[in-house]
Amino acid sequence: MEPVVLMQAVERLLLTVWAGALWIVGFLVTPLLYRYTDETAVAAALAGELTQAVAWTSLLCAAVLIPAQLRYRIRPLAAHWRLWLLVILVVLVAVGEWWVRPPMVELTQQAVDVAYLSALRAAESLYLIACAIALVLVLGGLQPGRETLAQFASAPDTDSDSERSR
C-alpha cells in the first residue's frame, strides 16, 4: 500500500473516531444517563467524565489531522476550509472542556441551579455546533477535490525550487 493511500485511510479513520465519539456521547449516551439515573448529580458527573474523554480523543485526532491538512498547501490558506473547520472544531471542544466544564463540575450537586443550567445550555450549544462541523467534514471528506489538487499540481512549488537552487 502506498504511503499516501495509507495516510488518507488513517485520516478517514481518525475523523470517523472523532465524529463518532462526539455523536455517540452527545446524542445517545448522555441522554440515556439522565433518563435512567435516579440522581441528576450522578448523571451529570458521568456525562462530564464521558465528555472529558471525548475532548482528549478530539485533541489526539486533531494532532494528526491538522498537520496532515497542511500537506495540501492550498493557497491562500484562508481558502483551505477543511483545515479551518478542524481548527474551529478543536477550539470548540477545548472551550467546552476547559472553560465551560469546570464551573459545571462545581455546580453538579445543585443541578437545578440557574448557573448550572446556564453553563449546561452553553455546553450543549458548543457541542451541537461541534457535531455539525464534524458532520460537514465527514460528508465533505478531508481531501481536497480533484480540481483543487489539479491547481496545486500545476502551481510552482516555491519551497522545492528554492532548495534546488541552493
Question: In brief, what are we looking at here?
Answer:
The chain has 166 residues and is mainly α. Helices cover 81% and strands 0% of the residues. The radius of gyration is 20 Å and the shape is elongated.
What is the number of E strands?
A: 0
Radius of gyration: 20 Å
Proportion in β-strands:
under 5%
Shape: elongated
- The ordered string of helix (H) and strand (E) elements is HHHHHH
Class from helix and strand fractions? mainly alpha
Low-confidence stretches: 157-166
Q: For the record, give the distance between the C-alpha atoms at the N and C termini, rounded to a whole number.
A: 34 Å
**Multimeric state of these chains?**
single chain
Q: On the 0-100 scale, what is the average pLDDT?
A: 82
Fraction in helix: over 70%
Count of runs of 4 or more consecutive helical residues: 6
Query: Biggest β-sheet: count, sense, barrel?
Result: none
Describe this structure in words.
With 166 residues, the protein is mostly helical. The protein has helices spanning 3-36, 40-70, 81-106, 114-140, 146-154, 158-164. Helix content is 81%, strand content 0%. Helix 2 (40-70) runs antiparallel to helix 3 (81-106). The longest helix is centred in the N-terminal third of the chain and has 34 residues, at 3-36. The two termini are 34 Å apart. Residues 157-166 have low confidence and may be disordered.
